[in-house]
Amino acid sequence: MPSNIVLIGPMASGKSTVGSALARRLSRPHLDTDHFFVARHGAIPVFFRTRGEAAFRAAEEKIVAELLDSPRPSVVSLGGGAILSAATRQLLADCFVVFLDVTEAQAQLRIGDAVTRPVLSSEPNVTPIERWKQIYAEREPLYRQCVDLVVSSAEDTVDSRVDTIVQSMAAR
């Protein structure tokens, strides 16, 4: 079994929720890059507003590298944009990478007013779901470039997504 299992995908795809359940199932720690970011730098929306997206991405890249370097095999949930970093994508080559996909309709239900998701409110006169669709279209090729397994939104429960991941890993 690979040392780290990494969950990637767009905002609202369930990376944190599925990651936590998968980690429990495998008796591994769950490391969520967004949680580590908040612990180290404070609230993401405030950081975005005061320091900008470039500074956020640089800090996020460092956190991802630290978490993937952990000596203990873990389940790691990355922020939706972490794969924008070429260095991060390169680090994923040594991991079992799962792309949690999600439909637009499911994402719309999950993102709500997007107050805690600064990249969805970065463009005036663009609704959060319209911005989500733009971001998804830009990032989807990067997600697919890094992936060992795609778990579709048709897997509608957390347990079914975890089952699919565990079965795929056992088949390797």
TrEMBL record:
Q: Where does ATP bind?
A: 12-17, 117
- Residue positions annotated to bind substrate are 34, 57, 80, 139
Please give the organism.
Garicola koreensis
Binding positions (Mg(2+)): 16
Q: How does it assemble?
A: Monomer.
The cellular location(s) given in this protein's UniProt record come to: Cytoplasm
Q: Which residues form a coiled coil?
A: none
GO biological process terms, semicolon-separated: amino acid biosynthetic process; aromatic amino acid family biosynthetic process; chorismate biosynthetic process
Which co-factors does it depend on? Mg(2+)
Which Gene Ontology MF annotations are present?
ATP binding; magnesium ion binding; shikimate kinase activity
- What pathway does the annotation place this protein in? Metabolic intermediate biosynthesis; chorismate biosynthesis; chorismate from D-erythrose 4-phosphate and phosphoenolpyruvate: step 5/7
- The top EC class, named as a word, is transferase
Q: What does this protein do?
A: Catalyzes the specific phosphorylation of the 3-hydroxyl group of shikimic acid using ATP as a cosubstrate.
The family classification in the record reads: Belongs to the shikimate kinase family.
| Reaction it catalyzes | shikimate + ATP = 3-phosphoshikimate + ADP + H(+)
Query: Where is this protein chiefly located?
Result: cytoplasm
Per UniProt, the cofactor note for this protein states: Binds 1 Mg(2+) ion per subunit.
Q: Which InterPro entries match?
A: P-loop_NTPase (IPR027417), Shikimate/glucono_kinase (IPR031322), Shikimate_kinase/TSH1 (IPR000623), Shikimate_kinase_CS (IPR023000)
GO cellular component terms, semicolon-separated: cytosol
Identification of the protein by name = Shikimate kinase
Q: What is its EC number?
A: 2.7.1.71
Alphabetically sorted, this entry's keywords are: Amino-acid biosynthesis, Aromatic amino acid biosynthesis, ATP-binding, Cytoplasm, Kinase, Magnesium, Metal-binding, Nucleotide-binding, Transferase
